[in-house]
Structure formats: structure tokens, C-alpha cells
Amino acid sequence: MSETLLVAIIAAGAAILGGVVTGIFTFVASARQREVERYKRRLLQAYKDITAFYRLEELYSQSLATDTRSADAIKRETRKKLRESGGDSPSEDATPQQCERRAQELS
């Protein structure tokens, strides 16, 4: 084989290999980007759900409030019972305002 033909074959092989590697990296990057977007949508929905549950808790505690027990007292008592039964209660950072602000930051 002539030297020119050998150089041309090596250059063509390198170009094909470069294209394949670039294609693989592009495919992996786009797959990860789709995955990030999917997780972002799920997180936004979770923030909306948390906010909705807080609003629901407010409505329920207000409807259960009487002259002798305030809505806040009912919430504290219910959350205490939840913790005593082994469940998790909302953290101090998990407020509707925090969730709404974080959801806006993601949007």
C-alpha cells in the first residue's frame, strides 16, 4: 500500500471514531438532561403537594377549633401524636412559603 492511502485510511478511521465518540457523549448528555428535567418536574409537584397539605391542615384545624382549643393547639397536639406514633412531622423549614419560594426558584 502506498503511504498516502495508509494515511487517508487512518484519517478516515480517526474521523469516524471521533464522530462515534461525540455521538455517544451527546446521547448520554441529552439522556441525563431529560432525567434532570423529569426530576425537576417531580420536585416542583412535591413542593405544590406540600403546600396543598399545609393549606388543608389549616382548614381542618380551623374547622375543629372551638372556644377552648385554638387551631394552633390542635395542630401541635396532632403533630405530637404523630411523632409519638413513630411518624415524621414536618420540619421547621417545610413551610408553605418556603415551598412556594423554592418552587419559584426552580421554575
Compact description:
The protein is mainly α and 107 residues long.
Helix percentage range? over 70%
**Poorly predicted tracts of residues:** none
Globally, the shape reads rod-shaped
Please tell me the total number of domains: 1
Structural class estimated from helices and strands: mainly alpha
Alpha-carbon distance between the two ends: 61 Å
Strand content: under 5%
Q: Tally the helices.
A: 3
> H/E series, N to C?
HHH
Quick check: average pLDDT? Answer: 88
Radius of gyration: 29 Å
What is the tally of beta strands? 0
Largest sheet properties: none
Descriptive account of the structure:
- There is one protein chain.
- By secondary structure, this protein is mainly alpha-helical.
- The chain is 81% helix and 0% strand.
Keywords:
107 residues, mainly alpha, 81% helix
SSE blueprint and pairings:
Elements (H helix, E strand, L loop, with lengths): L2 H62 L6 H14 L11 H11 L1
Helix pairs in contact: 1-2, 1-3
